Input
Amino acid sequence: MTSAKVNEAVLSQRMQWVRDMLKAIGDLPLRTRKDFLRDRHHAAAAESYLRRALEALFDMGRHILSKKFASPATEYKEIAQGLLERKVLSEKEADLLRDMAGYRNRMVHFYHDIGPQELYEICRNHLDDVRAVLKGFVRWIRKNR
Output
């Protein structure tokens, strides 16, 4: 596999998708746990928005690795490691993305273990992690145009 130019439109679309999903989470009643837990649909929406935001981050990482570095990654944690090794993301950002890979796998394969309380805590207290990784991608894209 040979390297090629990254498709900025693909990356831009994924970045916007992450931002849209974070905004949608922000529109949920997260002010208090009681408000969030009042309606079971809030947790379902939060799970969907969060999972889709994470998927978009991994799509961005996979695209960069594949196109720019001719290095396909098949597993989510490999994406984080590959991005670190190629200095796309800082060590802290790659660690966050690696943690997100584990959580994304829990969401998909062990969905029955993730409850509304946990989703509330993540949406209330950990969305800055998603924003930090997104900022890392933005920084790299700006440097590598």
User: Anything to note?
Assistant: The mean pLDDT is 95. Helices lie at 8-26, 33-37, 40-69, 76-85, 91-109, 116-125, 127-143.
